[in-house]
Structure formats: structure tokens, C-alpha cells
User: Which sequence fits this backbone?
């Protein structure tokens, strides 16, 4: 049994069967049980410390006996697997996939139905899922609930957001498990459309820290043809149970055998850095299915976007919510429209001058006058531009400047309309030399009654990525369900939003200084995020003296985010004129890479600080980003990640001595020093601040 121990117990205990599984390094142990009434259960330990107490497994079915009890074990198959694979784009040139596995074949005695429980135990955590094989007595079925439990052993500190079916764009809360209370939160947070919530339902992934210093993250991987998993928390017992997002009539998932659920994952470590360096979520997804990946390239881009958030321009041509502002129903321009041919050329010139790959243009197409809040079926057709945006001329000009254009497809939640027009929209993109698309799903979903995180929408988001691959189009999805590693299978899924991004700083109470120190432990575990960093004009009063909103970081921290936030698609989000005022700081954004051969997590504590170094793909250059929360921080970093025997010029972009995210956010300093792998650097981070460093090899 490959060192796996099987116990058959027929005493007065409640256990009828148990079997152990160890991680490759023998530090983690999973114990699988069948209880006396035939309920599948599992337990997880790190050394002698219990991480997850005995917890039930199973699926409830609609109008049928559930797959929750009455099971006996037919067979067990242990496996060991180890491979190295190379992502098309990523944080590492090579990723190791190494686990010990266990397949438990169960049969439900009353129905003669078979269920396989598939476990994979990595050095950094446990993954498991339900698999239903083809069988004559079990074909089509509807999952009404999943009763996967995660019974925690203490009142851990947790970083969580509400279990909203329609949005992940919340700031994180840091509380004990016993203190989770969604209904007590201030919901005046800038999120325009919210779904239903309950007092103790939160979203996964959830990051926790125990009193003994263990870091635990509960998440999922490879969500395909299944709803997103949220978590119902018992604040008295600290037990969590899976909560699947329903469809319009309350069902959770429609499946046909053979079927596989997503992987449920529990990552655990005594070292927070190992959570961030783990590639477990990616490893649990299927390998790349795109044969020719030569067209999948990393990108840095600028675009007509931030100026709308700060009130300088508008997405619409004729005036928001005023589609018929003339007596004959035609559109009369307001003069504030951002997506004009002339403005697009200005951004193309800026991109070409400073070496950016692409330009995004939002608001180029008709429909923005009454796009939001009306639950309207026909909003955009994705091919008709406003009168002041000449698609052909912009195409010609971009080609002449060797800049790629990124198209924007806002659906306003009308998914049925988008799917009807998807192929025409992609044809139009290719005709006009657009090889990347930013999709958007602001608003309530059509078909009406569906949620952003339900099975139908998960299938839609995945379908758009798959169809885009047929057209050789890169996808950056916004307001989508949060990613769970699909970019391994479809590497053209270059980035997504699915979290509270930098934009909230422009028109709401913003993102607290700790926000970017939490995201790597939660949202980023599933895939790269289009966070849109690089804002230099921190305070919105620059545009309107009556505004009090601001970005809750220093300027130096905005630079550091290009390293601490992994994404092969990174935006320099501020306006060209703002970068031109600070050309020395802007140099870091121009220099920093977005695709990597290696990543070193140097320091990490969720909610407090992160320092990461990354090696450029195919080069000897390194970049470092260090960020902190609302507290100023001093630290010393060893540079032993640099190549031995080489000298480097370190250009350090740091907070000035009097910098502060609120009081003096734009105060920064730049210095250069010569370093080697034996050097150490002292970093001084202001409150809400950061440090960004480029290491260029000398000679």
C-alpha cells in the first residue's frame, strides 16, 4: 500500500474504516474515515497539531437520496506523482507538481451508486474532490447542496469578506472567527450592485492564523461547470461548511456522469511565505490545451480609463443616463467624452515613447448613455463606435507606432446579449487588429435571477476564455467570478479583476493601507489580478477641490505594487501628464518586467507587510517590491537571491523621510548603490508606504 496504513475497526467506536495519507515531506497527514453510519470524513494534521478536526464529506441531491451516508469502501488506490512543467507566463520558469494521492472508491449500499473521493496531499496542503463515474443507475443529477466541512480547532484570526453572490469588491476584515458579522459592516463602500448576504457567510479564499502561529487558507481550484464555493461559519464551534451559489431557481449544479467537482483546498504552513510561494492551485488545474502559444505575450499598457474615474472625462458621448438628449433622438456630444480619436492617438504616442505594449480605450462604443442600473437586455453591440472614435484611423495609427490596442467589452451584466454577439465582436476585433479584450460585467445578470458566482456564469466566463483562444485573443475579465487557476489550462486568460481594485480609491472610501498586504494571501492564490497600480496623483482634490477621496498609499508603494502583485498584464493607470511630472519615479514603471523566471518571498505577514523579489524571464535583472500597512516599518533584506560573483546597480525608489500615505503621500527619494549577493539593504517604509528596487547587472 506504498506506506499507507489501513485500519479496520469493529469496536464500539463510531469508526468503521480509516486510512492515512502523508505528504511527500511527511509533515502533513490526512486521515480518511468512514463512520459507523457510512459517512465519509477526513482529518488533517501538521505534525502532531490538528489543523482540521474530523469533518464530513458529501453531496445533497435534489429529489433523490443524498450522497452523504450509507457508504462502504470498495477499494483504495494510493499514488505518488511528481513532474516539472513550464507555464507560458508566470512567476516561475518551472513549477514542480509533487503530491501523494489516494483514491477512495465508495459504494452507497442502499442505491448501489458509486462515488470516488480523490485526495492529493502536497507539502503545503490538502486537496480533494468528488468524482462520479459513468454508471447505469446514475446519470443526470442536480446538486442541491455540498456538505463539505472544514472543522477548525480554534478561534483563529481570519481575513474575510462577505459571502456576496454578486461581488468580491470588498475590503478585507481582520477579526477572530467568533467575531464574523457581515450584517454589522458599513455597506456604503462604493459597490453599486450587491447580492444577498447572511450574517456569517463569507467568501473563499479565507486566510487564517492560529494562536500557535499556523497559517491556514481554505480555497478551491479548477472550478469548471460548477458554482463558486462560499463558506458558512459557525462562530461558536469554528466549523465551516461549503455554501454553493445557487441559480435563479435555487439549484446549485446540474451535472451528468462522468462528473468532477472542483478541488477543495486547505493550505497550511508555519511560514506565511510558503503560502505565497505555493503553486498548488495551478497544479490542480488541467495542463495547457493551447498548442501554439507564441501569440500569448505579457503586456504593460496605458489607457483611457482613469480620467473617467477622476471626473476629467466620461465613458458616454451624450451625457450619462440621457440617451435621447435631442428632439429627434440623436446623440448630442457633451464635449467630455474620453474615447475620441484624438485622445486615443495621444495615448498611443505616450505608449510608443515610453515603451508600453498596449493602449486600452473604454467608452469607444455606443450604449453608455443608459448602460447601468436598468437591467436592460440590449445595451451594446460591441461593433458600433461613437461618431468621434474612428476605429479604422486608430487602427492605422496604432500600427504605425507599433502599439497594440486593447478593446473593451462592457456587458452591463447582459450576458445573453454578449453571447449572441460574441463571435461578431471577436471578428470585429481581429479585423481591426485588437488581440486583447477587457470584459466587464457591472450590474445585475441577464438571464435575470442568475448571480455572478453561479454555475451558469462560471460556465460563461470560462466559455469566453475558450472562444477567445480560438481567435488568438487575450482576456482580462472584470466583475467575473474569482479565478481558481484556469490560466494554466488557458494561458490566454492573462488576468482578471474579481477583487477590490485601485479604482475604488477614486470615488469611495477606498482601500485601507493593509489591503494590498492581504490580497496575495487570498485573491491572488487563484490567478493574476488587473489591480491597475501606478497612481501618482494620490489625492482626488487635485481634480476637484471639494473631493476628499485619495489613494491610501504613498507614491513609492504604488511602484512596489508592480512586484508584489503578480500579473503578466500590468497597467500604468494614471494620466500621461501626471507621469510626465515625475519622470524619475516613472522610470521604474517603464523598467519593471511582468514575466518571471523566479520569485523569492523574502518577508510576509498577512495584513502587515510583504517583500518579494522577482527575476526577469531570460535575463539577469531582478526587481524587488516591499509594502507595509498603515504602520511605518524598518527592515533589512539580504540580497542572497542575486547571482553569486556578479555586481549589480541597485536603483532604490523609496519613501522620503517625511512621507505618509495620508499626510504626505508623494514624498519619495531615489538613490543608487552597488551590491552583490552578499550585500544587505536597509529599507525604511513610511506608514502606508513601500520600496521598489531594480537590480541591473554591471558589465
Assistant:
Amino acid at each position: 500500500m506504498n506506506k499507507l496504513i489501513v485500519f479496520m475497526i469493529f469496536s464500539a467506536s463510531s469508526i468503521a474504516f480509516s486510512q492515512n495519507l502523508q505528504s511527500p515531506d511527511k509533515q502533513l497527514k490526512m486521515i480518511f474515515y468512514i463512520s459507523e453510519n457510512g459517512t465519509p470524513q477526513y482529518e488533517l494534521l501538521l505534525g502532531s497539531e490538528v489543523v482540521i478536526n474530523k469533518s464530513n464529506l458529501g453531496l445533497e441531491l435534489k429529489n433523490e437520496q443524498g450522497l452523504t451516508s450509507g457508504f462502504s469502501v470498495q477499494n483504495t488506490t494510493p499514488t505518488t506523482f511528481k513532474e516539472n512543467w513550464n507555464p507560458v507566463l508566470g512567476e516561475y520558469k518551472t513549477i514542480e507538481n509533487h503530491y501523494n494521492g489516494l483514491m477512495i472508491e465508495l459504494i452507497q449500499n442502499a442505491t448501489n451508486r458509486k462515488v470516488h473521493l480523490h485526495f492529493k496531499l502536497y507539502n503545503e496542503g490538502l486537496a480533494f474532490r468528488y468524482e462520479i463515474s459513468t454508471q447505469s443507475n446514475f446519470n443526470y443529477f442536480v446538486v442541491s447542496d455540498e456538505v463539505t466541512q472544514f472543522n477548525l480547532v480554534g478561534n483563529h484570526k481570519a481575513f474575510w469578506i462577505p459571502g456576496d453572490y454578486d461581488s468580491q469588491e470588498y475590503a478585507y476584515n481582520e477579526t477572530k472567527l467568533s467575531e464574523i458579522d457581515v450584517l454589522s459592516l458599513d455597506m456604503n463602500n462604493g459597490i453599486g450592485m450587491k447580492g444577498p448576504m447572511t450574517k456569517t457567510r463569507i467568501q473563499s479564499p479565507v486566510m487564517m492564523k492560529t494562536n500557535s502561529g499556523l497559517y491556514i487558507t481554505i480555497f478551491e481550484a479548477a472550478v469548471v461547470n460548477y458554482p463558486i464555493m462560499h463558506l458558512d461559519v459557525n462562530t461558536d464551534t469554528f466549523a465551516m461548511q461549503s455554501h454553493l451559489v445557487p441559480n435563479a431557481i435555487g439549484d446549485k449544479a446540474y451535472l451528468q456522469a462522468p462528473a468532477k467537482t472542483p478541488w477543495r483546498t486547505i493550505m497550511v504552513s508555519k511560514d506565511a511565505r510558503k503560502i505565497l510561494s505555493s503553486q498548488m492551485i495551478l497544479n490542480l488545474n488541467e495542463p495547457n490545451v493551447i498548442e501554439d502559444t507564441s501569440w500569448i505575450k505579457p503586456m504593460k499598457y496605458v489607457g483611457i480609463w482613469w480620467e473617467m474615474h477622476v471626473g476629467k472625462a466620461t465613458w458616454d458621448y451624450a451625457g450619462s443616463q440621457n440617451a435621447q438628449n435631442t428632439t429627434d433622438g440623436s446623440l448630442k456630444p457633451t464635449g467630455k467624452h474620453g474615447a475620441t480619436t484624438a485622445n486615443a492617438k495621444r495615448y498611443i504616442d505616450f505608449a510608443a515613447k515610453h515603451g508600453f505594449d498596449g493602449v486600452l480605450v473604454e467608452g469607444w462604443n455606443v450604449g453608455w448613455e443608459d448602460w447601468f442600473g436598468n437591467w436592460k437586455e440590449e445595451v451594446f453591440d460591441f461593433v458600433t463606435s461613437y461618431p468621434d472614435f474612428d476605429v479604422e484611423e486608430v487602427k492605422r495609427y496604432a500600427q504605425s507606432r507599433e502599439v497594440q490596442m486593447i478593446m473593451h467589452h462592457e456587458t452591463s451584466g447582459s450576458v445573453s446579449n454578449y453571447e449572441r454577439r460574441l463571435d461578431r465582436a471577436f471578428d470585429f476585433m481581429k479585423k481591426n487588429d485588437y488581440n486583447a479584450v477587457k470584459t466587464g460585467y457591472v450590474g445585475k445578470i441577464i438571464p435575470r435571477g442568475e448571480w455572478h458566482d453561479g454555475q451558469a456564469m462560471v460556465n460563461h466566463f470560462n466559455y469566453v476564455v475558450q472562444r477567445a483562444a480560438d481567435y488568438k485573443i487575450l482576456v482580462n475579465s472584470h466583475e467575473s467570478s474569482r479565478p481558481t487557476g484556469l490560466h494554466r489550462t488557458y494561458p490566454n486568460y492573462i488576468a482578471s479583476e474579481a477583487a477590490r481594485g485601485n479604482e475604488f480609491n477614486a470615488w469611495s472610501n477606498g482601500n485601507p493601507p493593509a489591503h494590498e498586504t492581504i490580497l496575495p494571501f487570498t485573491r491572488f492564490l487563484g490567478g493574476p489580478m488587473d489591480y491597475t497600480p501606478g497612481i501618482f496623483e494620490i489625492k482626488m482634490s487635485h481634480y476637484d477641490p471639494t473631493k476628499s477621496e485619495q489613494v491610501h498609499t504613498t507614491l513609492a508603494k504604488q511602484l512596489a505594487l508592480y512586484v508584489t502583485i503578480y500579473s503578466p498584464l500590468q497597467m500604468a493607470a494614471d494620466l500621461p501628464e501626471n507621469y510626465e511630472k515625475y519622470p524619475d519615479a516613472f522610470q521604474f514603471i517603464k523598467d519593471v518586467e511582468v514575466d518571471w523566471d523566479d520569485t523569492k518571498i523574502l518577508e510576509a505577514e498577512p495584513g502587515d507587510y510583504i517583500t518579494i523579489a522577482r527575476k526577469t524571464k531570460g535575463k539577469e535583472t531582478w526587481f524587488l517590491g516591499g509594502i507595509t500597512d498603515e504602520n511605518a516599518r524598518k527592515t533589512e533584506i539580504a540580497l542572497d537571491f542575486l547571482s553569486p560573483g556578479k555586481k549589480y546597480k541597485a536603483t532604490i525608489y523609496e519613501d522620503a523621510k517625511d512621507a505618509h500615505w495620508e499626510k504626505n503621500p508623494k514624498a519619495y527619494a531615489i538613490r543608487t548603490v552597488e551590491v552583490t549577493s552578499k550585500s544587505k539593504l536597509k529599507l525604511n517604509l513610511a506608514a502606508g508606504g513601500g520600496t521598489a528596487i531594480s537590480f541591473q547587472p554591471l558589465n
